[in-house]
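Project standup — Tuesday

K.O.: blocked on the structure for the chain from last sprint. Re-posting the sequence here as requested.
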Amino acid sequence: MADLLTDAQFEEFRKLIYDASGITFSDTNRSILDSRLKERLREGNVPDVQTYYKLITSNQDEFKVFLDSITTNLTRFFRNQPHFDALVNYVLPHLIEEKKKKGNNKINIWSAGCSTGEEPYTIAMILKDKLPAPFTFNIMASDISLKSLMVGQQGFYPNNRIQGIPEDYLERFFTKTDTGYQVKPELMQTIKFDYHNLRFDSGARDLDIIFCRNVLIYFDEPAQKAVIDRFYASMAPHSYLYIGHSESLFGMDTKFEFLKTEWACLYQKNENK
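H.V.: unblocked you, prediction finished:
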């Protein structure tokens, strides 16, 4: 099947996507962009690529739908278990110790690129279970995909999507229905789902933990560094950053310290104030 895009059109779309989101399309993943565009043209009954380009550059809502369509939302509960083992056995104990020194009992977390919500709900279950009184927490969960955010906000997952959740957590935090599992209100209220484009500052500050896993792979190096620098500025003096196991800050000029725990590797902001 012939490519939908000419080389010139590919450059136009690639630049538009990169400038708006930091997501990079190269010749190797050009076919993904091509197939997503075919879907959008068919679904929107748009006659050709140039007409669609004019549409997304003049209609912000359609542009958001287009960005949504080109992102991959692969996720599951307790994905990469060692990360959560490190959260329970290393990060939380150290955070609690730091917070006690300052008389602060609130832990602030951001799940950036949260997809359909499995990651923030996993974090929330763990903190509900492991965090001692009087500590509380709140989770900001963001994504560029509006469709994915709606799934997270609804908190309903079919039977084939709940693999990996421990049986006791499933009973404690979910209500079984005929077609799947509904997250209970007590867990849902700990998470705020919101649209956010990582190309821009979230406005959040004093974050204790950021999870941004398997997102940086969509960005080129300058865009990655810009995202990482914004993360650093948004985090508390003693805080922790999780990125995907196939991602690395190695070779990047960043203030984060590499942290190798017994369970997993992550990054730490460690500023003495």
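K.O.: great, moving the ticket to review. The chain is about 45% helix and 20% strand. The first helix runs from residue 7 to 21.
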